[in-house]
Specification:
With 49 residues, the protein is an all-beta fold. The protein contains no helices and 4 strands. It has strands spanning 11-13, 20-22, 27-29, 32-34. A two-stranded antiparallel sheet has the order 1-2. Strands 3-4 form a two-stranded antiparallel ribbon. The protein is extended and about 40 Å long.
Length: 49
């Protein structure tokens, strides 16, 4: 995996689903490069009241 630079068009293939992902969106899971959905990432939204 290469270090990405903002605006770079370098991409990597997800090890799980095979989709190509721009390097700045690649996540590492168990030592493999994966896309955000395959990384099981869940965004937490805080609502202040």
């Amino acid at each position: 995996m290469t270090i990405s630079v903002r605006g770079s068009f370098n991409k990597t293939k997800c090890s799980v689903c095979g989709e190509y992902v721009f390097d700045r969106y690649v996540r590492m899971k168990d030592g493999k490069s994966v896309c955000i959905p395959c990384s099981e990432y869940e965004k937490t939204v805080l609502i202040e009241r």
